[in-house]
Amino acid sequence: MTETVSTLFGPEMLADPYARYAQIRRPVTWNEQMGLWLVTRYEDVRCALGEPKLSSTMPSPAADSADRSSDLLADMYTFVKSSVVFTDPPDHTRLRRLVIAAFVPSVINELAGPIGAITNRMLDEHADSLDLAAHLAEPMPIAVLGQLLGVSLSETEGAQLKRWCDDFLLPFGRDINTLSSGSVLG
Question: What is the percentage of the chain residues whose pLDDT exceeds 70?
Answer without folding.
Answer: 72
